[in-house]
Amino acid sequence: MKAVAVKEFKAIPQLLDVAEPAVKEGFIKIKIAAAGLNPFDWKTIDGILKDHMPHVFPLIIGADAAGVVVETGAGVTRFKTGDKVYGQVLHSPVGEGAYAEYVAVPETAPITKAPENVPLADAAAAPTAGMTAMQLIDKTGLRSGQTLLLIGATGGVGSFATQVAKIKGIKVIATVSSEAAAKRIKSLGASETIDYKKAPVEEQFPGGADALIDLVSDAAGFEKMSALVKRGGAALTTQFVADKTRLEEKGLHGGNFETKSTAASLDALRALIDSKEIVIPVDRRLSLAQAPAAIAESRERKSKGKTIIVIDETV
């Protein structure tokens, strides 16, 4: 089968011919409609998990996928052949990922029934970004009428988080880099935007946010942004750059945030998608052959919404 993989850590991804995965006991085999591109994909190439999980090479990348179950192994009870599913296929060993025509994963992986009111391929854009956004908004503890300062709003997580916040009645002040980006994020529910290319955010926003979600800043940037939050508020970063002591000095809670991926979280996300309360922010649909270039662009943080790698929309 065709797959995008690397032959060693930090190598440039290539479109390769690799063996189709076999189904073991407790596993399901999925024919993939599309994979969702995430920054975690190139971080995996760089070896972010090499000290935590075994790897196999050539290492097929990709955590998010949507597709159809075509085979089940002995003992499988959650799924049957023909089920349309979406979720995260990352499992041990790392390297049996979503950028491929087929993937075999444990039925215990964070995978569940796919949304019914969107194309199956589009559902591949939702798992990681959608779950992260929902859990971030919950972690802030914000209530209707309160204000969220959202840094890095126009990427995948930010696009989902803006919509989740709107559902809860939270006022979102989103950072953008252009008029087009401002228009798009406002269409998703942001109340105000700040163009950080015109002047530093702290010069345009006087402070007083009830919470901060920062998806892009380094440690120095997060320090500046957290100063714009009221005492007693929350300041969260997905970049693992928070200093707990500094946050406590400012009277803030939160800090470094890590998504907890579960089938239950995916079920909650599916409900919001099927009820049309959330739109999956697909920005681009690319082929498997175009995936290596898209990964390189992701490294440069040029995302606007989500990119999906379309593999087979006929499934």
From TrEMBL:
SMART domains for the chain: PKS_ER
Tree of life domain: Bacteria
Pfam family, one: ADH_zinc_N
Protein name: NADP-dependent oxidoreductase
Coiled coil: none
Domain called Enoyl reductase (ER): residue spans: 11-309
Organism, scientific name: Chitinophaga chungangae
InterPro entries, alphabetized: ADH-like_C (IPR013149), ADH-like_N (IPR013154), ER (IPR020843), GroES-like_sf (IPR011032), Lipid_raft_assoc_Zn_ADH (IPR052585), NAD(P)-bd_dom_sf (IPR036291)
